[in-house]
Design goal:
Layout: H1 11-26, H2 40-63, H3 66-71, H4 74-92, H5 97-141, H6 144-158
Helix pairs in contact: 1-2, 4-5
């Protein structure tokens, strides 16, 4: 016999905790509001349940800048999302049939969208590589005046972003 203690948690208890956690995730002031009926210990436990996810999400968002967004490899991000879905599926293996059905119902269209995003990201990466190759050739083969002339003409064709 194991020495591990499992406190009794009824179905309603798990539902209540899940509801409170989801509400706190959706509204950052949920647990700090003056209307919050929970005692300090319960609030601390709920924050602990949310804490790691919240800390990662807030630090990720606060660290993003326009420059860092340009540095994100979209193909790698899509692959990471697909791996996350696979890991989540493995966690659901012991779950009930309803959760597995919901997983498959939601995952199929999501994977389709991720495949489209991966294809777009791949195209963006190819365009960036081509642009860098063209700029390198221009630097190596053209005089500064010739390069400026070509860039000015391209701005008219592809817009002011060049």
């Amino acid at each position: 016999m194991s020495d591990v203690f499992y406190p009794e948690l009824g179905e309603n208890d798990a539902w209540k905790v899940n509801t409170a956690v989801n509400a706190a995730k959706a509204d950052g002031s949920y647990l700090s509001s003056s209307e919050c009926p929970y005692d300090a210990e319960t609030i601390a436990i709920l924050k602990d349940l949310i804490g790691s996810e919240e800390a990662v999400a807030s630090s990720d968002i606060s660290e993003l800048t326009e420059a860092s967004i340009d540095d994100i490899n979209l193909e790698d991000e899509v692959v990471g999302l697909l791996l996350g879905l696979k890991k989540f599926k493995e966690e659901l293996q012991n779950s009930d049939k309803t959760e597995m059905n919901s997983y498959y119902r939601l995952t199929v269209p999501l994977i389709e969208k991720l495949v489209v995003l991966k294809e777009r990201a791949s195209g963006i990466n190819e365009v960036n590589a081509f642009t860098q190759a063209v700029l390198t050739v221009m630097e190596d083969e053209l005089s500064p005046d010739q390069a400026t002339t070509i860039i000015s003409r391209l701005k008219g064709v592809i817009g002011e972003k060049a």
